Amino acid sequence: MISNEAALTAAQCRHYSMCKIDYLGTGICPAGAENHFVSYYPQGRMDLVKAVAAGQLPVTQRLVDIADTCTLCGVCDLQCHFISELRPMPVMKELKKHVEDHLAAGKPVQLEFEDKSLKSHDPLLMELQEITGPRWASNDPAITTAYYSDPCPVTIPKLPRAVVLPKSVEEVEDIVRVANKYGVSFMVRGNGSSVMGFVMTDGILIDTQRLKNMDFDTDNWCVTVGAGVSAFDLQKEAFARGYRVNVAEPAALVCANLMCSGIMSLFSTSYGTLDDGYVDAELVSPQGDRFRLKDKRDAHPYRFIREDRPLAGICTSVQIKLYPTTADEEGFLVPVESLQEGLILVRELSIRRIGFGLGVLGADYISAFMSPVATLARTVKDFTESMLRAPFMVMVLGDAKDRAAVQNMNRTIISNDLFRTLMLGLSKLSPASGKSHDTLADILQPLDDGDGLPLFHLLARSDLQPLVEAALEPSPETHASVVPEDLRTAYTRLYERPEMTDLVWLNMFRILSSRMGREKHLLPLILYVPLDKPGVIGVLVSGFKRIADSFNLKNDFGFVSPLDLGKRAFLEYDFYLDQNDPDEIQRSRMALGEAAELIEKTSATVTGVQWIRYTLNQGCCRKENLLYSL
């Protein structure tokens, strides 16, 4: 019997897959690392407990093994709390107890081949197991349930007939041929972190977790990675060699991310997007034939066509570019009073080639990234918007010369040192600390000379830094003071590490971005926009806000990042929903429909506006065909 508390926690899993990467340097779930199926990771176990609580999952042979291999090591508790404030350990304990009680009562265990919805010893499954070995292909409900759905409101849940984990491209080819032989659909899955309903199938689910090869060719500044390599793990290996790669969310698998929609990051300012980042890729066609993108073909599979397109092939490896790093890199923030001011500034910086990474971020993003808990993030956002009058900030990743160039433009700079002070001391703004906004404001406001400038100008003054530090008392211990007491030591140790407050490192590895979905599931609207037309961007942003507000959905501006020397840009605007509230799910669907109408209408009349929807399965297309075609 699963308790209500455990069931509620399990149902809140966002499927961001952060428990599959060692992003905190504390290790990952040993059972997941050894067995690879999602069900063996904390994310999968949360889905299993949700299904057990709903009476949808019997005790099966695999469920017994999944429960038994959980060591209750506690790694998942810190990992999950860091991004979502969920504590999965009680859920893991209840799953183990559920299985143990079932076995102790002498109740039967369903064997792996006895699923009543399939023929015993399903011939399809048997052929898949002949390809990969019995361990790596399964139709056990305890395996397939973890691939059934995700939190996206438009997802159509589908239970796979079988899940298979190939180890080589040859095995992928054979799996596709078996699917064709039986007339069964198939879908390829990376880490499943898209949470947009793209990786569901009632046929064969091909999980690429075991294709983890990495081959660096530093003489040619490129690296070939298998389809099971995550953005975080690749970035870690590249960085150790003095390079970086242009990748997206840390748990996203690089091949899947590249093929699905292309790479979008602040580094795209310099490194580009879509076809800019890769040299070549190896794919398996829907017929089971291997090919490479550089092969001469009658119809190139990744020329852009503005329509919903089917999967052109399963990417088994990709050769992507490496970019050198330098020892003097630094990040800084430029506060601005409006979105329009931020757009004009970031475009000018891009045109002038100032910084290798640029973006306009909203206060919602900044506060979520900096704050270890959601209650503090709300306080920080209010402080940033109302007290500092900085509802937006321009992020600049560059070096000292870039910082000097921006300062010469008479711009106020929040240096990385001041950012570190703020990040390690913002817990003092929490009501629980006994202080409030007024603590810092009482220092800054008497120094205001009445010139009407926002307080962020005073906050950034170097001569006032001792006063700011006295007010905030920045330290790893201060930062950790607002998290649950049993996690404070772990948080303190994390924030003793300098990279945890380094803007360049944080943007390279993006370990904080999942905090955007901490309170509710994140539903991003992402599109390409003309940065030379800031008014168009303003109309889109205000339109998205109007739509979300009309359906009573939480919403906020995400970011804008320039491309092609300020000609184009990425725009993200975020809707949020309670993934377990049927009414909110329905309202978010209607909001998405209206947002789609706004995007399509604008795209039809404004050159350069394109919805990311149309890059699905075209992430390797030439960006000129997407962004500059009429």
How would you characterize the overall build of this protein?
- There is one protein chain.
- By secondary structure, the chain is α+β, with helices and mostly antiparallel strands.
- It is built from 26 helices and 18 strands.
- Strands 12-14-13-16-17-15-18 form a seven-stranded antiparallel sheet.
- A hairpin with a 4-residue loop joins β5 (214-217) and β6 (222-226).
- The N and C termini lie far apart (59 Å).
- The model has no long low-confidence stretch (mean pLDDT 90).
Number of helices: 26
Question: Which percent range fits the helix content?
Answer: 25-40%
Mean pLDDT: 90
Flag low-confidence runs.
none
Decide which structural class fits the backbone. alpha+beta
Number of strands: 18
Keywords:
single chain; 630 residues; alpha+beta; seven-stranded antiparallel sheet; 18 strands; 39% helix; globular
Write a short abstract of this structure:
The protein is of the alpha+beta class. The protein is 39% helix and 15% strand.
Please specify the SSE layout and strand pairing.
Layout: H1 4-11, H2 30-35, H3 42-53, H4 61-69, H5 75-84, H6 89-104, H7 123-132, E1 137-138, H8 141-144, E2 162-164, H9 169-182, E3 186-189, E4 204-207, E5 214-217, E6 222-226, H10 231-240, E7 243-244, H11 254-260, H12 268-271, E8 278-284, E9 290-292, E10 314-321, E11 323-324, E12 330-336, H13 339-351, E13 357-362, H14 363-370, H15 374-387, E14 392-398, H16 400-407, H17 416-425, H18 437-444, H19 456-459, H20 465-472, H21 476-480, H22 488-494, H23 503-509, E15 521-530, H24 534-550, E16 555-563, E17 568-577, H25 582-605, E18 610-611, H26 623-627
Parallel strand pairs: 2-4, 3-4
Antiparallel strand pairs: 1-2, 5-6, 6-10, 7-11, 8-9, 8-10, 12-14, 13-14, 13-16, 15-17, 15-18, 16-17
Helix pairs in contact: 1-3, 3-6, 4-6, 7-9, 14-15, 17-20, 24-25
